[in-house]
Known about the structure:
- Chain A has a single domain, classed as Aconitase, domain 4 (Alpha-Beta Barrel), CATH 3.20.19.
- The mean pLDDT of chain A is 94.
- Chain A has helices at residues 16-19, 31-36, 44-49, 70-78, 90-99, 107-112, 142-150, 153-160; strands spanning 2-9, 55-58, 82-85, 103-105, 118-122, 127-130, 133-136.
- In chain A, 35% of the residues lie in helices and 20% in strands.
- By secondary structure, chain A is of the alpha/beta class.
- Chain A is globular.
- Chain A has a 7-stranded mixed sheet with strand order 4-3-2-1-5-6-7.
- Chain B has 14 helices and 18 strands.
- In chain B, strand 3 (58-61), helix 3 (71-87) and strand 4 form a beta-alpha-beta unit.
- Chain B starts with a helix and ends in a 10-residue tail after the last helix.
- In chain B, 63% of the residues are buried.
- Chains A and B meet through helix 5 and helix 8 of A and helix 2, helix 3 and helix 5 of B.
Amino acid sequence: MKITGKVWKYGDDVNTDVIFPGKYTYTIKERSEMAKVALEDLDPEFTQNAKAGDIIVGGKNWGCGSSREQAVSCLKERGIGAIIAKSFARIYYRNCFNEGLPIIISPDAVEAIEAGDEVTVDFDSGKVVTARGEFPFPPYPDFVKGLIEDGGLIPHVKKSLGLK
Amino acid sequence: MGKTFAEKALGRAAGHEVKAGEIVTVEPDFCMSHDNSAPIARTFRKIGVKNVWKPERIVFILDHAVPAPSDDHAVNHKETRQFVAEQGITHFYDVSSKGGVCHQVMCEEGFALPGLIMIGSDSHTCTYGAFGAFSTGIGRSEMAAAWATGQIWFKVPESLKVTVKGSFRPGVAAKDLILTLIGDIKADGADYMSVEFHGPAIEAMSIAERMTLCNMGIEMGAKNAVCPPDAKVLAAIRDKARTDRWEALWADDDAVYAKELTYDLDNLVPCVAKPHTVDNYAAIDAVKGTPIHQAFLGSCTNARIEDLRAAAAILKGKEVAVRTIVIPASWKIYRQCMAEGLIETFLDAGCVIANPGCGPCMGNHEGILAPGEACISTANRNFKGRMGNKESFIYLASPLTVAASALKGEIADPREVL
């Protein structure tokens, strides 16, 4: 699998409150509506203009704070192809696999990539490919590979329970 | 080689010895969810399993926006009640005088117990470590899957050992310790780790103080945070433990840690976390005099009877200079406040008292800030927009500092009003 897209770049410790504000947690139920407010309190330009296939690049500890899964759902539904960061907060990390949103940990790639770059994430070869260089990233732990292959936790559980 | 608390608790649940880095699949002892029970129930139905694995291990506590402030919230609560009836969920705390903030209720009602594996669809589930539980927050999909399968996977975390000695000087509180620690190691300083609090100062602390510490473990990225299950904990759970599956577990003296830190309480001063991150530490001297427009005494971090007594002692016989919202963490605490005359103290001082629940903490309903306003709060997060408005400012502090600041209408040093 390969994903190519335009980069939106942010800093360290981007928290789930600015990705999906708490005031919407019980008023917005549809995923399509979640997508419309993604990153509203961080970057209104993203909220207005992000396109399917775009890639987010963040610093350390992306997704810290609340466990709210909508902070992943809103980006997945928006069509974001992948998030590349120096590190991820742990609940967010799990939520991404559970939602089927690919994430890459690559401090070197984050340092090199600039906002607006076009980058390709090549999952088969395990590399982030950019005009500024290529950056290998470690393979996912075996345990989560199954989740990704099945498209997220819920399809994975259905499959493991023999349900359609 | 000895074992950490996390290695012991996850090993016990897995039924075999484990060490940091291993992946284990375990059965949770309790699963807590709050107002997000309804969306989790919708996801659960998508899986196609008819019944939850063990309805007596699931706890629902409505607290995020109670009583329902809008029709959306009301529908959400209604769906929760329907699911409770349909699935025979045993432990349901509806909008009633039996409830309060979910984490407080879990501790008061005897669910938080030593050695248990506890998961919650809320990041502050780590609070139950104050009772020696292995407790951690998860997302909605994962909770739905846990209800269906009775299983959850964990990577056995590495551990951070924080040894605390000395004693708090007047005007300094557990909140100042945890804000100092987070300020030192930053928001990712304990990413993926189990944080263990050790030492004589922890043993001397009340369970309320330990809850404040463990509650904010997530603010440094921790998977869980935990204090020793000592005699105080055993006394607190006597006669109210909801299961006999618990076991007092603690780290061995020769356990192996990824990192070790030591704090001396004698060296701590009152402090705040400045906008917009919890690790944005400032000693009180650096920020006192900063104008505020609202003060909030509440949340799962700092609204227990001990916290409210400390705040009331500062407010007694005086009047607040800014709007001040007081929310006891549970109705049990509310009643205790009444019995001790604290409610009268708060009312005499001009405070507004709201019903137990999360209140303004995450901008869901009451106590929203206007653009340009600043709030000093005993809660756990000061992220941009957290209290409902992205052009407002939140300072986190102890109940003492919040009460002192409420009196002055600006950030104030509690040592000057004690």
